[in-house]
Amino acid sequence: MLGFEKGTINVIRLSITFMLQFFAYMSQEFIQEPLIETISRNTNDEIDSHAGYNSFAIMYFFFTISCLFVTPVVERISAKWSMVLGILTYMIFQAGFLNLNPISLYISSGLLGVGSALTWIGQGKYLTENCTGSTIERNSSMMWVILKLSLLSGGIFLLYSFQHQTLIEVVQNETINYITILFLSIYFLALLNTLLLPLPAYQPKNRKIESFGGTLASTFKIMSTIPMSLLSIIFIYAGFSRSFWIAIYPTCIKFTSKLGENTTKLLAMSCISSGIGQVSSGFLMAIIGKNARKIGRDVILLIAVIIHLFVFFMIFLHFPIDAPLKTTDQVGLFAPSIELAMLSSLFLGFGDAIIQTQIYSFLCDGYSKESSHAFALFKFYSAASSTLAFFLSKYFTLPMHLALYSIFAVFSAFSAILAQRKYFYKIRHFQPDCIEIYTVDKK
Hints:
By secondary structure, this protein is an all-alpha fold. The chain has helices at residues 6-42, 51-69, 71-95, 102-128, 136-161, 167-172, 175-195, 212-223, 226-255, 263-288, 291-295, 297-318, 338-366, 371-392, 398-422. The protein has a single domain (6-199, 211-422), classed as Growth Hormone, Chain: A (Up-down Bundle), CATH 1.20.1250.20.
């Protein structure tokens, strides 16, 4: 396939699974809170208007806890079968929207949290076992580009769906049921593609399978090291960043009536803008490839943080204080505009993709033989901060959100600089013969 080695071909096939899976999930996630708020008004509050935020908080809470305990499962049943089980939980969650009620929503959200842990830790393990030190930047960026095509295509789908109708009309004419069935069909294609994934190209040789207790002990041992403690601050910010651009900021757009009559259509445009930012960032990282080491992961991540801080400031200036909480006809210090809202979405996505790809590079290089443990900790910290963000979303005004995220953005930049220059200045990644050549200072 295009002259790529087996490992890269496997990564492309993995990326196709995630592109399909997250076309469905991220399209749903982007409209979830506004959709449930609309259903609540349409059914005389049979479901809480903020049940979407509650669902996110429950899902990320179970995701957080599961990240510490599913690693032994991933190690025993393999990355592939972990992802298969994970996709099944996504399908169960999606099916609940055919007959939405609080009990099934919250139970399936918890189940989805466990499944997400299996999915993402399995993905990190499979990616690591199909890369070498010379291909990790290219492969992780390539995977990110293909994955984020789901966001771009999902936004186009939402734009088409809401071109001539609002969320209220979609709920009242039951179009939402057809959308749900479509998403379930796409999940099935992702499941089928995952079942057909081949064995990884570069599995470590003579690796003993740890016991459940041994795997947990290894995870907590890595967790307690200084390098992982520094990376954890970046992970926490990554969780805040994702929760903001994927759910909280789109909700601000939907609830800011000064942006226009059909703000549901603007949700789709925001999704497309975020997708363009994510994909273009991934392309840029793929082009840079191994040169990212010369530039420095810390410098690249610092650039992403500066971009985000500027966007946060612009959002603060133009959006109403209460935009995350309810429909409002207020404005910020300046009147918001559609162009500014879309540019903000684009650069939020652009910066987030840079941060995510550099995290993958840190982990695949520094923890190649403990990939399940390292990716579990990444998802643990990022999910914990996302849980907190969604829990606070029912109470926090926009400036409170932006202040919290800005503080952690600055901390993450300093952590990246210290981690790269003191601990991750060497490469530690198994090569095709799976013999460890370099080491990272993990003291």
